[in-house]
Amino acid sequence: MGIEIEKKYRLDKKRLVELTAKLGELGAEFRSEVFEENYLHRGDLIDERGAVLRLRKIGDKTILTYKERLRTDTDVKHRIEHETEVADVDSMEKIIQSLGYKLSVIYEKHRKTWHFLDVEVVLDELPFGVYMEIEGEVEGIAEAERVLEIQDLEPEPRGYPKLAVKFGKLVGEVSEARFEKQTAVEKTN
């Protein structure tokens, strides 16, 4: 069983720029920049456990993820996490629906990832805000906070699915948080 340990922070655009520069100055290893589409499903067992069943599309790659939060007394989240790459996303979506789960949330995200000290640092831009996550062991997260000088940042306790429901829009029975697509005319003006 994999355990994901992370802490999330809400940022403003100014802090995003500062932290991006600081990661470079401190020698963090830039790993990737991707655009994600996340599709979350609800249903009996998932809802009872307060878990998440997600299909994440990154280009032509799709990852199926199950996450279940473990209770802790800190603002550092601990979750059971199982992931696997999916070869046929359409068939996987049909399997999920056949098991009785319904699509409930869709959100898009631009993500930049760094390896820094003994943690992974990601800077995420979503249609409803900018966030940073630090993932690793509790001690590594605390050390990264100290070195990045972010002790003043308030932790964000809500996950992206809850934030997408709060700030997204309801399309049928699905909460969606998508970036607005510009037309060719809008891009040139």
Give short descriptive properties of this protein.
alpha+beta; eight-stranded antiparallel β-barrel; 6 helices
Overall geometric form:
globular
Largest sheet: 8 strands, antiparallel, barrel
**Overall average residue pLDDT:** 93
Q: At CATH's second level, what is the architecture?
A: Beta Barrel
The overall strand count is 10
Total number of helices:
6
User: Given the helix and strand composition, which structural class is it?
Assistant: alpha+beta
* CATH fold naming: Hypothetical Protein Pfu-838710-001
Q: What is the CATH C-level name?
A: Mainly Beta
Report low-confidence residues grouped into runs of 5 or more: 183-189
Round the Cα radius of gyration to an integer and report it.
17 Å
CATH superfamily: Hypothetical Protein Pfu-838710-001
Read across the widest sheet, the strand sequence of neighbours is 1-5-4-3-2-6-7-8
Write the element-wise H/E pattern from the N-terminal end onward: EHEHEEEHEEEHHEEH
Structural domains: how many: 1
The CA-CA distance between the termini, in Å, is: 51 Å
β content, as a range?
over 45%
Helix content: 25-40%
